[in-house]
Give the backbone structure.
Amino acid sequence: MKTIPVAAIALSVMHSGANADSWTSYRIPETRTSVDVPVSVFTEIAGKPDGYGQQFRTSDGRADLTVQAVSNREGLPPAEFLARKDPPSGIIYKRITPRFFVVSSIKRAKIWYNRCNFSRGYVHCVLINYPAAEKRQWDRIVTRISHSLRAD
């Protein structure tokens, strides 16, 4: 994966929001999870999450993205699955439907955003952490990532 200088990433995020200049579709073959990832922003591989997937981060470590799929053998609905994860009490935004949930809050000056879609025995998730002070600059990036999450 191509590495872009820190200054270029900062300018891309700070000034152009969702105009991140290079996106690709990341796919988890085992679970058929796919999501759009701005590779011009998340330039580094940052490890493996539980289950299947990949973690990415900006070269300066200010933000990170986890794309993950975990088994839902019990067939838990989104509300029950989320409750069993014991989320923090300070959730600012929560939306739960029969097919997905979204939760978000602020912790240590960073916004954490988590969306999980449910299908075929798996929970397909994106988790994004980014500076709260840069919320407006990240809104379009987070929205595109979130809305592109699929299990084909």
